[in-house]
Protein: Oligosaccharide flippase family protein
Organism: Pseudomonas donghuensis
Amino acid sequence: MQEYRRGAVNALYLILVQGANYVVPLAVMFHFMKELGIAGFGQYAFWYSVMLYVQTFVDYGFSFSGTRDIAASDGSSAKISAIFSQVTVAKLLLSACVLTLALTYYFFMADSAQPVLVVAATGMLTALIPNWYFQGIQQLREISLFNVLGRVVFLVLAFSLIDSTSQVSDIFLLHFVAVFPPLIFGYWFIYKRIRWSLMISKQDLAKQYSAGWHIFSTTMLSMLLSNGGVFWLGLSTSPAIVGIYAAVERVVKAIVGLFIPISQAFYPLNSRMFSQSFEKGLRSVGVTGVAMLSLCAMAIAVFYFSSSIWFEIFKIPAEGTAYLGVLLTWVFFSVFNNVAGIQTLSASGAAARYAYSFNIAAVIFVLVIYLQMSTDAGKVVAQALLTSEIALSVLLVLNILHIIVVKRRCA
């Protein structure tokens, strides 16, 4: 019971962070829509989706594989030090790759690449914030508060400095500045408490990349499913359409955002339970999963019946109602897939099955988009997201049932 209590406390700290992660974007969306218009917000939304891909690449799944390794280290300072050092160096090498590509793109495509450097740098630094370490040791209070501070800094700067004359790159410079409070504090805190291991071999790095690969591939595909809509629309249609779709999606994703901290807080617990026995892990997931899905259903109902209010508040054009029902349904399946995929398959060591399921779902997403290219682009993206998410749910459940059968036969 003590484990669940600690997980609940950590979830509260992460909810504080995630609340800032979504309250702040909603607040600045209101400001950006007012100052930049729907097309300007569409341009910002597209580049923000690019930043998220950069962040996902540099993170490389270490938010889960590194957290899992630290949670399973039994508090050994030597093990924790080695894991932290290896993961940090692995991320820095990926960051170097990102900067090299961004610089190359900038110099060869300068006419169309104005925001690329600041977007790449912001995504890179965001991924380097060591939240995963604090999740692994289950001490989230301080880093959570500094993450919130960073968001508040961005909010204040955005309202103070962004006006109708601002460019997209100006906004991302503010994102860049806001990264530093949690980044600096996180490494200062860790420097005070562990000894960095300077002797890191190629084999150590290869081991970390191998451990993070399935989660990375799954997370990148997850980004394709959850963030690919704005990215694809940004490449294929007008900024105004991107802005309408992105505005509805951003508000709806606030629901999913409520469950990210709960998932992150209970993932180390579920990983530890699965390390003791598969049956204990299943029981642990059952407790947290039912709670998450019940809360999700209630949140969806609240958002649906209050849609006329927040459409008016954010000045979202009426065309956005065409996406609302599909995206809210997608939210439920997205939370369900977190329970089935991250909390069950990944935590139990079956991340490869999770990744394989995402491969299929990603193919379905792309097929739905390209088979319906001649119809309304926003509706196509929303339908593609929902179809692929439902397919993923089916695949994950089948994989879990298969593992249960195999485990119980061997028992």
About this structure: The mean pLDDT is 84. The chain has one domain: 2-410.
